[in-house]
TrEMBL record:
Species of the source: Clostridium sartagoforme
PROSITE patterns per the UniProt record, alphabetical: RENAL_DIPEPTIDASE_2
Pfam entry (one): Peptidase_M19
Protein's UniProt name: Membrane dipeptidase
Top-level taxon of origin: Bacteria
A Gene Ontology BP annotation from the UniProt entry: proteolysis
Amino acid sequence: MNSIDLHCDTASRLLYENLKLRESICKVDIKKLKEGKALAQVFAHFIELDLVKNPYEEFIKMYNNFTKELKENEDSIELVRNLKELEEVNSLGKIGAFLSIEEGEVLEGKVERVQELYDMGIRFITLTWNFKNSIGYPNVGYKYKDKGLTERGKEIVLEMERVGIIPDCSHLSDGGFYDLVNICKKPFIATHSNAREITDHSRNLTDDMIVKLANKGGVMGLNFCGPFLGSEKVPTISSMIAHLKHIKNIGGVDVLALGTDFDGIENEVEIKNIAEIGKLRDSLIKEGFTNTEIDKIYYGNVKRVLKEWL
């Protein structure tokens, strides 16, 4: 079972808990990625604004630590920056590591920094986390629901599109989402968000948002976080399938992807770590999804977006 996971917070755990990428207590490590037959993993540099003095400096610290880990394990995993590099790495039996940032304030409102981050290998930026920043507003509850991107935020998104960094609308306010619909010419994505119609949480996307994301050619990664999936203490595969079925019915199978949020979510999950990602496939087959549809969910749709962007 080949897979591409659009979001994990492993890079921050490696730094703050002094762990190793090859094998650790993390839900994502090289050993588990191999067991899960991963093609690629998107590793987020998660910066919690209220806990750091300087988000850019904190990102640099995390980036240096994580790229050092990649270098030490280049027999198994390599930094990739586009689809061509991913396919080359996969052909050698290795896993591709894409880099993302989860907190747009790493840019500190500086449009010129977008190019710098691109040159460092960053290919996705989650525009906000749970705090308002110079780009826009988060969906924390519905406090900022209708707030859009700032004028500087719009400039930054256009620059991201110019250089080749994919905007991620997970965590972004509804108003910010619709601004992306209006200004982005290429597909944008929701790396780790589910369906609000199934689970009424502000972090999930409404049916209208799902349709508009699909019409843009974007994808949304299924998030394994308990509150976004439902009310179960330990989220089950059946709750995941309920979201996938609904999203497929509303936006079509081409909008579906995986975005586990492993090492960022605190709850236990029926799929315990990235090594067990194939369990979802087995259940999807039982639920009537075709192999072609499942391949799209697991990696095909993300590859399509990568091909258009990178």
